[in-house]
């Protein structure tokens, strides 16, 4: 949970504006209370991938960069991690040879 607080403050210091809302930090903290730490990091990874795909689609569609909320991607990724998290981690472990 402290990781997200650090990410919030480092992003604010580096970009001189809020790049990750505190609501996103609280949402990840609540999800962290429900799932294990490995599923929490899987949630963060999946949310980032989903948001990146969405951002790329928006960029090519609108030809401009705009901010969009991260919470819907966190929620979707948490749902995927809760339902399919351990099979995804097992698959990744087999890929890595663990």
Automatic annotation (TrEMBL):
The name this protein goes by in its record: Uncharacterized protein
